[in-house]
Amino acid sequence: MLHLSAAVDQPSAHDAGSYVELARLAEHGVLDFVTLDDTFARPGLDALAVLSRVAPVTGRIGLVPTVTTTHTEPFHVQAAVATLDWVSRGRAGWRLDVSTTEGEARLFGRRHAAPADALWREAGEVADVAAKLWDSWEDDAEIRDESTGRFIDRDKLHHVDFAGTEFSVRGPSIVPRPPQGHPVRVVDASEGQARDIAARYADVALVRSVSAAQTRAVRNQLRAAAARFGRDPDALRVLAGLVVDLGDGEHAAEPGHGGGGPRQTAQGPLYRGGPVDLADLIASWHGEGAVDGFHLTPAEPRRDLERLVNGTVALLQHRGLFRTFYPGSTLREHLGLARPVNQYAGEAS
Fold first, then answer.
1. In three state form, how does the secondary structure of the chain look?
2. How far apart are CA 333 and CA 329, in angstroms?
3. pLDDT confidence of residue 252
4. Is 71 within 8 Å of 170 (Cβ atoms)?
5. What is the torsion angle, in degrees rounded to the nearest 10, for the CA atoms of residue 276, residue 279, residue 284 and residue 285?
6. 247 pLDDT above the threshold of 90
7. Are 197 and 124 contacting, i.e. CB atoms less than 8 angstroms apart?
8. Which of 116-120, 144-148, 325-329, 338-342 has the lowest mean pLDDT?
């Protein structure tokens, strides 16, 4: 199954309507999910809050904000992501990221900047404790029995008692277990420091490379590492990340783009050409087993996402390579991922 997703980043947009428009357009194309980037390193809207606004006016598209694990409280982060899963009825994801600069650290004043490898280890701990907190309510912990006045079965709430290098969490969560059990965790595994964290905790790993061969090599590494961590490697989706510039319309891709592959730029691998050549590239890489799908960042958000959906995606659908409707209602179902079993089910509180 081919998986497609897109970024809806608009650095200069400060109204919800523009994000709603792009998310609905992606949903029209039956994409698995959209992402919205966020960082403490520059001004901008809070990605999780924006996608919480998008949730009630969309019906199927997955919603994946970037939420940094550095300088933020893990308990609050997991509760916010769980809330997004509830308000979207099971369509939430979470793209984990870290904050590496001293300027970001000064915004909070709690500690100095740390090396990236240490911050990614901490991010792994946050991913771990988030899963434990999502499971701290069993699925049937809520009773809501008016006749007895019992709202919760306390035997089905669990303390996680987690101690990390920079934080500790007792639990349980204040939010009931999310509809998906665990909202989908996404990690950009392009850099070495994040790769082990992606293999151990991510449901979706993003890889930015300029060739099918490079992407296949990273995918094989991630799957092998996932197996070493005791995971089923088939439960990890690896998506190739490309910036796409479809401003040339139907003209053939520039030399080095299209069938010849993307070019490396400061913004990452860039494809510049037409929707047809992009469809050929996607079909080729996926057909060779290099990737499970693609995460595409439009160079010009409105223009390129529209050409992606109405051109590239429509052509892939016509070729029978991409679905024409959502087979389920949750992001996990879009990705073909099972709902996780609660790790505490059956235990005493």
1. CCEEEEECCCCCCCCHHHHHHHHHHHHHCCCCEEEECCCCCCCCCCHHHHHHHHHHHCCCCEEEEEEECCCCCHHHHHHHHHHHHHHCCCCEEEEEECCCCHHHHHHHCCCCCCCHHHHHHHHHHHHHHHHHHHCCECCCCEEEECCCCEEECHHHECCCCEECCCCEECCCCCCCCCCCCCCEEEEECCCHHHHHHHHHHCCEEEECCCCHHHHHHHHHHHHHHHHHCCCCHHHCEEEEEEEEECCCCCCCCCCCCHHHCCEEECCEEEEECCHHHHHHHHHHHHHCCCCCEEEEEECCHHHHHHHHHHHHHHHHHHCCCCCCCCCCCCHHHHHCCCCCCCCCCCCCC
2. 7
3. 47
4. no
5. 140
6. no
7. yes
8. 144-148
pLDDT digits (tens, 9 = 90+) for 41-76: 999 999 999 999 999 999 999 999 999 999 999 999
Of residues 52, 142, 134, 135, the one with CA closest to residue 91 = 52
CA gap 64, 97 in Å, rounded: 12
In the numeric block, the tokens 């890889």 are attached to: 207
Average of per-residue pLDDT values in the chain: 93
CB-based contact 48:78 (threshold 8 Å): no
Owner of token pair 């087993």: 289
pLDDT band at 303 (very low <50, low <70, confident <90, very high): very high
Backbone angles phi, psi at 131, to 5 degrees: -60, -40
Q: Measure Cα distances from 278 to 20, 238, 302 in Å.
A: 25, 18, 17
Copy the structure tokens of residue 338. 């099972």
Position 25: which residue type? L
Establish how many alpha carbons lie within 13 A of residue 94's alpha carbon, considering only the half-sphere containing its beta carbon.
31
56 touches 90 (CB < 8 A): no
Listed residue (58, 52, 68) closest to 31, CA to CA: 58
**Between 3 and 164, the higher pLDDT residue:** 3
Q: Who contacts 163 (Cβ-Cβ below 8 Å, separation ≥6)?
A: none
